[in-house]
Amino acid sequence: MQNLSAMDKNTLTEKEAELAARLAEFAAQNLNLDMTRGKPCPAQLDLSSNLLSAPGRHFKAADGSDCRNYGGLDGLPETKALFAEILETAAEHIIVGGNSSLTMMYDALVRAMLFGVPDGDGPWMRQGHLKFLCPSPGYDRHFAITEHLGFELIPVDMEEDGPDIPRIEELVAADASIRGIWCVPKYSNPTGVSYTDSVVKRLAAMPTAASDFRIMWDNAYAEHHLTGEADALLNILPLCQRAGHENRALVFASTSKMSLPGAGVAAMAANPENIADAKRHLGIQTIGPDKLNQLRHLALLPDLDRIRAHMRHHAEVIKPKFDAVQRVLHRELDGTGAATWTDPRGGYFVSLDTNDDGCAREALQLAAQTGVKFTAAGAPFPYGRDPRDRNIRIAPTFPALTEIETAIQVLATCVLLAVVRQRLRAE
Amino acid sequence: MQNLSAMDKNTLTEKEAELAARLAEFAAQNLNLDMTRGKPCPAQLDLSSNLLSAPGRHFKAADGSDCRNYGGLDGLPETKALFAEILETAAEHIIVGGNSSLTMMYDALVRAMLFGVPDGDGPWMRQGHLKFLCPSPGYDRHFAITEHLGFELIPVDMEEDGPDIPRIEELVAADASIRGIWCVPKYSNPTGVSYTDSVVKRLAAMPTAASDFRIMWDNAYAEHHLTGEADALLNILPLCQRAGHENRALVFASTSKMSLPGAGVAAMAANPENIADAKRHLGIQTIGPDKLNQLRHLALLPDLDRIRAHMRHHAEVIKPKFDAVQRVLHRELDGTGAATWTDPRGGYFVSLDTNDDGCAREALQLAAQTGVKFTAAGAPFPYGRDPRDRNIRIAPTFPALTEIETAIQVLATCVLLAVVRQRLRAE
Question: What is the ipTM of this complex?
Answer without folding.
Answer: 0.96
